[in-house]
Amino acid sequence: MVSGLIPTRAGLILLGLCCALVAQCVLAGDGQCYVRPGSRAAALDDCVAPTAFMRRNHMELIKHQRDATVHQGIRGTRDSLAGCIDCHVSRAADGQPVAVNEKHQFCSACHAFAAVKVDCFDCHAAVPRGAPLSEAAGGMPENDLRRTNQ
Amino acid sequence: MKQQHPEETIDQGRRAWFGLAAGVTAAVAAPGVVLHLADAAPAVGTEGVPVTAAARWGLLIDTNKCLEGCRDCVDACARENGLDRQTKPAAQSSAAWADQRAVWLRKAKLADNLTGRVTNLPLMCQHCEHPPCVDVCPTGASFKRADGIVVVDRHVCIGCRYCMMACPYQARSFIHEAVHDQLTGVPRGKGCVESCNLCVSRRDHGLASTACVDACTAAGHGAIVFGDMKDPASPISLALKAMSSRQLREDLALNTGVRYAGL
Amino acid sequence: MKRIVYREWRIPPGRYWGILGILAVVIGLGGLSALYLEHQGHWVTGMNNFVVWGVPHVFAVFLIIAASGAVNVASIATVFGKGAYQPLGRLSGLLAVALLIGGLLVLVLDLGRPDRLLVALTHYNLRSIFAWNIYLYTGFIALVIAYLWSMADRMGAPFKKLIGLFAFGWRIALTTATGSIFGFLVARQAFDTAFLAPMFIIMSLAYGLAIFVLVLLFSFHEECRPVGDKLLMRLKRLLGLFVAAMLYFTLVYFLTKAYGAKTHGLVDWVLFDGGRYSALFWIGWVLIGALVPLGIIHHPVLGQDRNWIVAACILVVLGGLATLYVLVIGSQAYPLQMFPGHIILESGFFDGVKSETATYRPTIPEFLLGLGGVAVALIITAVGVRVLQFLPESLADAALPADAVYLPTASDRE
Lengths: 150, 263, 414
Known about the structure:
Chain B is an alpha+beta fold. Chain B is 30% helix and 15% strand. The interface between A and B is large, with 69 and 70 residues.
């Protein structure tokens, strides 16, 4: 129903993206980003949406996903919180995942910088633990999180 | 590193960065627009489909096949939902903890007062069509999905426990302690109320059954049938038609999604 | 009759700050308990999956219904035209707001996620009587503040009658809704009756008035302001009436429950086999909360003695807490009747195995939280009367206005 508008919007994103990228370079100098070495994301080029967009809007995406999942049963799509964690979690030398909300880890480093507090990890596992479906149910479902972004 | 800049630079940097980003946001990220953007992005993975009222999920429990002392369904439920990971707070007594830990599914053994006939059955959320917990919930956190599953949206639950007062089946548990080591697929945490959700993520991924049913079937008891009560050809509908069954507390006319045969 | 003059509560600063200090300590302890509870989770309380509402709720419900009872004194003057009560209106309004805030605070701090209070205000389910209460409570506070304005400000005077009438209607709705929080719970044998709504109204009248009389006598005594005997006797007799009505409602409640076969067991249990709940019922609810105060009030000698009247009021308050303990907690401890005609032999959860009742052992933080709410109500009142003109200079009988509609009462004929 809004498909007619998309090209314009896409243009706008591009424009915004450029601005944001420029700003980022100016500000961060070395282009430092929060993606942790050793996470799957470190080996990839893109997030689930353009990076600049993610920086600003990841909370909207996750919250939208949250309501879609809890109320409408829409799961395993690209914006799932489990997916963010799965891709962004870094691994210690021994290969063990390090919680994304631990100090200096992906979600917390930036949140500490931006003085944001999220309570999501009171309930949500901060490391991948168990597949989206239990092993009894056959582990990874069809729309495998690992495959959604490749 | 950005986060190591002195205080002031951080603030300025942050403001400028946000200022610019805000421009981007203003242009593209008004809430509604974000959603469309997300939809319009190149399709990655399988988009889920919202649940509809075309199905109504339910269970039929044949108490004649439910064995005394068997805990297969209970254990399977605990494993599936990470309830076996619960730990007693060190300072709490075991007796008090037994009343405070979460239980989604339990077994009960009853005897008829007159005849002494003994019945064993599993008890869980009965997924009422007219759930009292949903009626009383002040924030609407307790709700019924279109497919009849009663769940708590724990992002909106304030932990008032009024639903637990209202539930005729004592089906709900309050999380009395901080939770660690949750499963990714089953988030749970302190201060909210939870209960059986008919293995809701299995539903959304199109799986055939629930953890308790699988365990019961695998053990060869076959005491629980799961399925769509709206589909006349589903095993549960056929079984419901074939044998007489009851709802617990049918006097309340809640039209439960869980039915018991042989009670 | 003279014009009524209101004056701030001018007790010596040392005394005043002493009182505030004590209250602040109690509030501090309540606050610490709330923090402790939120940090640890509810496992540090005696509450569990079966008795989900405990001592904090006893205090909260008590304070909330007492609030709607306290404003009744003002209503008697404005709505029912009893002039003698008119000078009491301001204190009655203040006390109502203070008690309600204290009660709500306890209720909110006991939530599993008090940090999500905002959620409660932005998401609501209109089918929930609890959600309705949120609006009834906030509306009540706003309305009583308007009422206070109409009583205190010349500009408000023309609206006083109207606002008073509205406030009266609102407080009836509020207590009805509070009673319905329990009354609408079809699942539980002890609740599931609309009768709880009027019963809560009667209880609110008694508790609210008892607290009102205590606060009135204490504040006047501290400053040696006079309270006329005639007025006090009227208040006392009114309290007697409310307490008697409460006793009657208690009787009818249990008769109703005893009549239905499915609630026989419940009545037996509360009245006889309930251990501490039975003890609290007979000693707290009936004896301390009703019979002894009635005895004092109607005693020819004791009933004239202020100290005894104070004692009667204190007993009504204590009895009220016991009443709510039995009503709120006992009703949850009594097992649900899930399988009529069956006895539960074993269960992996509490299901009233062999008709056993649920255990609930309240812990100290729960009491501290509840008392903190009481202290909040009192501190609001204390500060209110200190800085604003809530208390009439004199309540000596000669200073009181006459009733607008003169209805002879027993003592007038004496």
